[in-house]
Amino acid sequence: MRWLFRIVGTLLFLALLAIAALFLIPTETVARLASSQIERLTGRSLTIEGSVRPKIWPELGVRTGPVTLANADWSEAGPMLTAEGLSISIDMSALIGGTVRITGIELIRPELLLETAADGRANWDLSAAAPTEVSADTPTSTPVASTPFTIDRARIEGGRLRYIDHATGQEVALSDVALDAAIPDFDGPAQIDLAATMNGQAFQTKGTIGAFGAFLDGKVVPVALKATIGGSNIGFDGRFGTAPVSGEGQLVAALDDPPAVFALLAQPDPELPQGLGRDRIAISGAATLTPKGTAHLRDGKMQLDGNALSGAFDYVPGKDRPKLTAQLSAAALDLRGLTGTTGGSAGAGGNGGAPSSGWSRDTIDASALGVVDAAVSLAAESVDLGTITLGRTRLGIAIDAARAVTDLKEVQAYGGTISGQVIVNARNGLSTRTDLSLKGMALQPLLVQFADFDRLLGTGDLRFNLLASGNTLDALMRSLSGEGTMALGQGEIKGLDLAGMIMNMDPNYVGAGSKTVYDRITASFTVANGVLSNGDLAFSAPLLTASGSGAVNIGEQTLDYTLIPLSAGGKDLNSDVQVPLRISGPWAAPSIRLDLAALAERKLREEREKLRARAEEEITQKLQEETGITPLEGESLEDTARRAAQKALQDEAARQLNKLLGGN
Q1: pLDDT in tens, 581-610
Q2: What residue stretches are annotated with the AsmA domain (predicted)?
Q3: Domain parsing of the chain, residue ranges
């Protein structure tokens, strides 16, 4: 029972002490002190409206009515700060001793306006407004130092912040702002925790400023910062300053929630494919931000989902667009997400770039090429694109004003190597130039991927230089122009037996199990308006040699080609048995037949030529007998007749002249 009385007595004493404290708190004095301190620090007028009430919980102090902090004299946007009130905490022990010491200030539901004028002035630059004694000899360019102050705790709850850049028209708004700051030593470290919502995305930051006073004056000081955006985390440990903005230090970013980061930046989710940061983007390295606004990363490490890259990055702002420079290297890159496939194989079926339904007519959006200029080099040991797996890859990409030039220095693919240059120009519409050399290519997987054609096996060399323009793949293919060559080594053509067809004069040597083994095929070609033309194909096989000519309509995905046998079974063929082989129709399923009509037409043409030659010979002989004119080598019958007529005229003119002279 005695202990019970003691507890009750203690509680009564504390209650009386609290009541006494309410009477001891000089509310108006505290409010005036806080107001004067804020005005001294900012050089701006602080207006407190309504009554000032004492409080004992959670800390001893006072609470004011609405407060307003004046804006810079050049601003026309209203007060810099408004709040429902101030909650001011004071030191009780100092109060009992007869002095007032403010330990904390909390802004209740404040609305803060930050502005930069068109000439670069900032309304939060309070150093120029704060009263400071400056001698007449002090240079005007010397920055005015901030007035020192300390505070055990400064808090904001339920705040709103609005930033306006009058030079660019940019506006940024933060809501649900919660700030907790401790500045125990003006020249020492300060702890600042901030949480807010921007563009509908919440974020939190915790940071330590190594020298608060120097930082407030814009100097570069030690800074450690950690930020959380959804499931993403960003950390910086180094040095940072604000006048001008610059810094350097170690950057570690683990963006495990990329959509949250894009939402915070008010950017649409780019829906990055798997392998390029769909689920995770991690960056680390030595980061530098210069006063000119350039950003640099050295000893950089980047993780894009399962892809690990290393290298250096440089970002330079530009008048028209920024420029990104990077030197990247990787062991193996998994970019199957770019092609929407789950596995990589050089001959993965016929779902290549040319489906039987035709080329895509979807508009190609190349606007991304105009967002940033770039100079990027990449070296990788392998690149899995799903449809194919590239071996060692070394390339460079240069983008200048929406024109991208990709230099393929070395790309191992389809069992061979690819080198050359690809240009994509999106400055005015879309146009491309592809100048490539392919050596030692495995033909079947190459043609399956790009033409949905799987009947040609073997290896070969290809070289082509092609131009195209249009905003769809269909338009690009129909506009192709240029030239190229090919030289194929040993291989086979599936689905037909050319030697069997020609030697047996039977077009039924086609279908499963039929094939033509060849030793070499060479050809050159030109392309105009999407149609490839060739007239010098040379086909060499153990049982057959042939020449070929025809056209491939790339836009329509059709071909019309003729092979003429020159020898069969090791024996030369005379024209009577050189039956043409006609290959025509859609290239995915062409019609192959012996063209007997063409053979008959050719024989008829040859007979006509023989008859014409015989007639010319007879006429020439008769002309020679009657005129004595012998045809010159290479001279046509018409020229011989013309020469004979001219000689006859000359002879007649001479005869008449002699007759005339003889008559005198």
Answers
A1: 888 899 878 887 776 666 556 666 666 677
A2: 5-203, 311-536
A3: 23-124+148-184, 207-317, 619-663
